[in-house]
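Final report, closing paragraph on structural work. Over the funding period we assembled a curated collection of sequence-structure pairs, and we close with a single example.
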Amino acid sequence: MSEASKNLFAVGDDESIPAGEDELIFAEEDEAEDQPIAASWKILIVDDEIEIHNITKLALREFTFENKPIAFISAFSGKEAKEMVQTHSDIALILLDVVMETEEAGLEVVKYIRDILDNKIVRIILRTGQPGQVPEDVVIVSYDINDYKTKTELTNKKLFTTVVTALRAFRALSQIESSKTEIEKIATASARFVPREFLKFLKRESIVDARLGDSVQAEMTIMFADIRSFTSLSESMSPRENFEFLNSYLSRVGPVIRQYNGFIDKYIGDAIMALFPNCAEDAVQAAIEMQQQVKIYNRHRQNSGYQPISIGIGLHTGTLMLGTIGEAERMESTVISDAVNLAARVEGLTKLYGVGIVASVQTLCRIDDPQNYNCRFLDRVQVKGKQTPVAVFEIYDGDSDIAIELKGQTQTDFEQGIFFHYQQQFAQAKQMFLRVLQVNKYDKAAQFYVERCDMLMKNAVIMTLEGIEI
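Its predicted structure, as stored:
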């Protein structure tokens, strides 16, 4: 037995510690042995002298703290200690020798625990039999340890005191870490209801900081996306099937919006309202990819015996106000502006013209190179209550490959038809749209204009330059 082992506990210094508020008691030996390890404080003893392990266990064998005994784990080298700490992540205290297989083996263990495993909670007490070899002041400053003792220092009473202090600190840090984890979970959950991007624009760190009336003005591209004929589709499903269908659909298109730097402001039944704060091109690319995802979803639906769906997407770029509305006990985030209203109206045009994506001229003008996209002029529309008409365009990159090819082939005739239409030459306009339909009989926008020209000629209506009202 080494000299340090012989002097580990001074004779006559074996008093017990009173229980106090931390409920420190001495349990019967058989009770401690029956206690499951899961309900124990794990203490790792790291030392290359087996006598140190035995004497430490003997001194603490009847020790309990908060009705929990100690479960001892032993390691006899720095290498073994690293393995034990990695295996047992819930170790509360490490009694660590410094000099083992190398002169700084214990210090290497400290660095491994704190820097590699990033374990800041476990309490580490260095014990050395050679205090002059590793000066205390250097170690305590350079290494993240909680105490530094010589082996001869740790008498019976001092060992108990040291262990109680360490376990008390470990308990407090564990509670803090648990609370921190819970707060992080709440923050993550709250982001599902109030987007982080929304709070970022309001310059709030979290939903806790949000105040009624917070608001900010910004220019963004607004997207509205809606499922076609959802009412009739939902009537054929039970309420539970409706929820499952909507969540299945939204789980496919929602990530696309985030992928292209947008965030969902709200769900309105089957409709989505999303905002793209960075650039209009993000919104255009997201709209195209959403149409692609619907194609993939439809293959899955058809394989499962369900009818395919289609969606319409409207895009408009403008200035809006983001903020919170409501009252003290119930408020929500929202976006208010004429631009939002116009974006919703633009989405409604996808039904009128039978197309997948409609974008306002304000959105197209903010794209670096619109020629990168397949688009065609659709109409000029007049928003109710507004003086200036808005030009709208179809972006058909989200169509099938065949539809994209056919619309490209007929684009000149289609746009010539639009020109004659606005020149009040409805017969010539109709002929151009019929030429489009001869090539592409599924072009619903061309069919719409044929019917409109017939109606205008039949009723001898003189069109104004403001276009139709939406």
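Residues 156-191 form the longest helix (36 residues). DSSP finds 16 helices and 16 strands in the chain. We thank the funder for supporting this effort.
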